[in-house]
From TrEMBL:
It is found in: Membrane. The keyword Metal-binding does not apply. InterPro entries: TBL (IPR029962), TBL_C (IPR026057), TBL_N (IPR025846). This is Protein trichome birefringence-like 35. Residues 115-169 form the Trichome birefringence-like N-terminal domain. The lineage of its organism: Eukaryota, Viridiplantae, Streptophyta, Embryophyta, Tracheophyta. Transmembrane segments: none annotated. Belongs to the PC-esterase family. TBL subfamily. It holds the Pfam family PC-Esterase. It is a single-pass membrane protein.
Length: 455
């Protein structure tokens, strides 16, 4: 495996369709807004260092994803009865530590990093002749949190940048060819609001060639489905920000003081994703919000263990990797993992001496190899180690470095606000700028071009 470089039949028109679209847009926008406060606290107390709690306890290995183990499904009302020291438990999965061996990646795997040309290494080229790939106003499924031009952003340069690999060309997105790849298939994005943005991007890229009376969007609390009848295909999004079961699995009500996870099971979400033909996973930002409470599935007393975010993420990724290693046949199902999406919360990282963030930025960073604090290298190494053991079971789409350059691509203040902002906020735009998510059209469209390239 090449190591990642540090230098994602006719029918009558349905009279209720506009109402369904309005409901979907409002649902997506509200859920994004509802989580924004906690997400914006990620870098105020960054969780970079390990606690090394495992040095004081003996390590034992737990087989994940066992049926009928947990008596209670976690939800936003779940609480820990008490908190105890971390027991040292780790996840045992085929190919991982403690599993008694297992196959690793080989030269015949389909990992995207084995391509002769590294499409993840390149530069952004301004191209107002070919980009954007769609118009913001032409997509009825656009989120108000990502529709930056609609909400006042008039410098549209962010829509016209094309990713150019150094030694080759990225395959240009072809809508009809993509639909042929998806014919009779389910494409599902699984993860957090960044993955939801990539899903909206994909829907906006694809929807234009489908007649309005032959496409539909069925919003659901956890699973949202865009359906194209003539291709018998769906493009879906499943809210699962931590991949494993947690008390943050409500896509709207997840602003919680105490984050609780079941680190040894993905079965709750896997029951929704297991029948998809193409899976696109992500997880990262939610692990950077401080310590996490662990409630193992065999614990019936409600006693939680506490662990820092990165180590808890390793446990969760182990449970996810166990599912991938046992359930994914690369000849029948494609699984992709999208690496961390960077933030641009501190302008001093690309402009020494300044005290802002992404607000007001209009051009990409032109320093090749730039890497800000919004992307944690130790976390990326931990994820790389797990993914390398999965071999051909999963392909990695490394969006991190190319997205690091795009300080200009975030919504900043150009999005819908559901409540009036106080005067002191309005007087200080950086204080309420979203430097985490991405405007559409924009950077997530390139993530989907990469997905198209490898499909």
């Amino acid at each position: 495996m090449q190591r990642w470089k540090w230098s994602n039949g006719s029918r009558k028109r349905n009279p209720y369709f506009p109402l369904l679209v309005l409901f979907l847009v409002a649902f997506i926008a509200f859920s994004t807004l509802h989580s924004e406060h906690s997400i914006n606290q990620i870098h105020e107390n960054p969780d970079h260092a390990r606690t090394h709690q495992e040095e004081h306890v003996s390590v034992t290995y737990v087989k994940p994803n066992l049926l009928n183990r947990a008596s209670e499904v976690l939800d936003r009302f779940s609480r820990c009865n008490s908190t105890v020291e971390y027991s040292g438990r780790r996840i045992a999965w085929l190919g991982g530590a403690g599993a008694g061996g297992g196959s690793r990646g080989s030269g015949s795997d389909r990992r995207v990093g084995t391509e002769k040309c590294d499409v993840f290494s390149g530069k952004w080229v301004f191209d107002n002749g070919s980009y954007p790939l769609y118009n913001e106003g032409d997509c009825p499924y656009m989120s108000d949190q990502l529709a930056c031009h609609k909400h006042g952003r008039n410098d549209l340069g962010y829509q016209h940048w094309r990713w150019q690999p150094h030694n080759c060309n990225l395959k240009r997105f072809d809508v009809k060819e993509m639909w042929e790849k998806l014919r009779n298939k389910r494409l599902m994005f699984v993860g957090d609001s960044l993955n939801r943005g990539q899903w909206i991007s994909m829907v906006c890229l694809l929807q234009s060639v489908i007649p309005a009376d032959k496409r539909s969007m069925s919003p659901n609390a956890h699973l949202t489905i865009f359906r194209a009848e003539e291709y018998n295909a769906t493009v879906e999004f499943l809210w699962a920000p931590l991949l494993i079961e947690s008390n943050s699995d409500d896509p709207v009500n997840h602003r919680l003081d105490e984050r609780i996870i079941r680190p040894d099971t993905v079965l709750k979400h896997a029951s929704q994703w297991e029948h998809a033909d193409i899976l696109v996973f992500n997880t990262y930002l939610w692990w950077r919000q401080g310590p996490v409470k662990l409630l193992w599935t065999d614990n019936e007393k409600g006693a939680c263990e506490q662990l820092d975010g990165r180590e808890a993420m390793e446990l969760a990724m182990g449970a996810w990797a166990d599912w991938v290693s046992t359930k994914v046949d690369p000849l029948k199902k494609r699984a992709f993992f999208v690496t961390m999406s960077p933030t641009h919360l501190w302008s001093r990282e690309w402009k020494p001496g300044s005290e802002g963030n992404c607000y007001g930025e209009k051009d990409p960073i032109d320093f090749e190899g730039y890497w800000g604090s919004g992307s944690d290298i130790p976390t990326m190494h931990s994820v790389e180690k797990i993914l390398s053991n999965l071999g051909s079971k999963v392909s990695v789409i490394n969006i991190t470095q190319l997205s690091e350059y795009r300080k200009d691509g975030h919504p900043s203040i150009f999005r819908k606000f559901w409540e009036p902002l106080p005067p002191e906020k309005l007087a200080n735009p950086p204080s309420y700028s979203d430097c985490i998510h991405w405007c559409l059209p924009g950077v997530p469209d390139v993530w989907n071009e990469l997905l198209f390239h490898f499909l």
